[in-house]
Specification:
Layout: H1 3-15, H2 18-26, H3 28-42, H4 47-51, H5 60-66, H6 72-83, E1 97-101, E2 110-114, H7 116-137, E3 147-151, E4 158-160, E5 163-166, H8 168-175, H9 180-183, E6 184-185, H10 188-191, H11 196-207, E7 212-217, H12 219-233, H13 238-241, E8 247-250, H14 256-265, E9 272-279, E10 282-286, E11 295-297, E12 303-309, E13 332-338, E14 345-356, E15 359-366, E16 370-371, E17 378-379, H15 380-394, E18 397-406, E19 415-424, H16 429-443, H17 445-451, E20 461-464, H18 469-476, H19 494-506
Parallel strand pairs: 1-5, 3-6, 3-7, 7-8, 8-9, 19-20
Antiparallel strand pairs: 1-2, 4-5, 9-10, 10-11, 11-15, 12-13, 13-14, 14-15, 16-17, 18-19
Amino acid sequence: MPVPIVNSIISWILKKRIHQIELFLKYPNEVQQELLMKLLKKAKSTTIGKMYDFDSINSVEEYRKRVPIQQYESIEPLIEKTRRGEQNVFWPSTITWFAKSSGTTNAKSKFIPVSKEAIEDCHFKAGKDMLCLYINNNPEAQLFTGKSLRLGGSSAIYEDNNSNFGDLSAIIIENMPFWADYSSAPKQEVALMSEWETKMDAIIQETMHENMTSLAGVPSWMLVLLQRLLETTGKEHITDVWPNLEVYFHGGVNFQPYRKQYEQLIQSDKFQFYETYNASEGFFGIQDLNNNDEMLLMLDYGIFYEFIPMEKFDGENSETISLEDVELNKNYALVISTNSGLWRYLIGDTVKFTSLNPYRIKITGRTKHFINVFGEELIIENTEEALQYASQKTQTEIIDYTVAPIFMSEQEKGGHEWIIEFKKEPSNLEEFSLHLDTKLKTLNSDYEAKRYLNMTLNAPKIHVAKEKLFYQWLKDKGKLGGQHKIPRLSNSRNLLEELLDINNNTI
């Protein structure tokens, strides 16, 4: 069958899903409530289901009263039981897959249960929806005339106690149907390589002569791959290597700090960037409009959502609100109940709603990744936007950064200390710092109040990182590739001190 016809048929099949999406757009709260009742009914005979008597819960309100909010540490003993082979603990179907997530600086790994329903009805479904929404917005798309480059994690699949664990992307690749290899690259054996730098070279060798039409992966790591591709081929732009490339599906980190570099690498007015929101615990959001980084909250993936207003956040003791009660532009911590048996699980992400009809979101940060040592309540969304502003004002480009507090002492006031790796350094670091500080004040009134006349906070203190400092740190920690990333903000100085020691000893 000719390739254009195949492209048309696949596009038509995918677009049929639009009618199902329209259902939860029209009845979002009803779809969510019905979904929760189905989850509870299915899991009523599990260890957790019996513990909280799921069978007698008939409303969202009763579910909230009966089942406590939980973080990973609270359910770790039960997860370990499941990893050792005990079943019907969280979820009735057999769970043998666990997404290994080591977080950021925390060396202790988390093992998130991944059921067959989560693989099929959440992650695989989201992958198809991602294509469906893109094609619906771009009827002339020719995605299926070529292949998609998928860049997953550097973790292979491991067996332990008769269960399997690995990076989520590796689990997804391992469970893909055989025919998926024909429409994507690299091949499974390359995609699952555990040594990151060897894998990058293997991907380049396999794909540089292929007709690649789309990219999918985390921006920081995809950027490294694309830059190495240009070095290998001697080409100036990615579209010189892959002229039919039309879209990049990205997620995992904020894309804004990387956008300018991608636009320089991929010089095409028609090229699209599509944001996604997925994690080891589930797939939550997909950009549904061209040239708009807001994401549609996906409501029929076997995930029930609750939200904690961040001004009332108190960890597991917090009170949640339902989807129908959220407000625009407020920060909420995300609580989920899933078809892998995570019940009222606090995943640690914060989001804000940019639209209530339909429900669209942006990721604003992490519940643990902020700075509030002096009451400044600085969140990642603030720092990302301020850095973008300062970069535009000073014609600079940023690769990576982290920020930590300078604690008050008898000798000095408090402050924020930054270490930033620039692709293009500012000619005047003081000017860059001034723009950064000014923008933070306009974005965050608490920060502005603490900066007033330097009464509580001094101006930002900025260090320029040596080339590949953050990359080397991740490599030394065995965290290259996948979802691994540098924590942007911390109330502790541990990471900053470690990076400064490396930076000062090697410059």
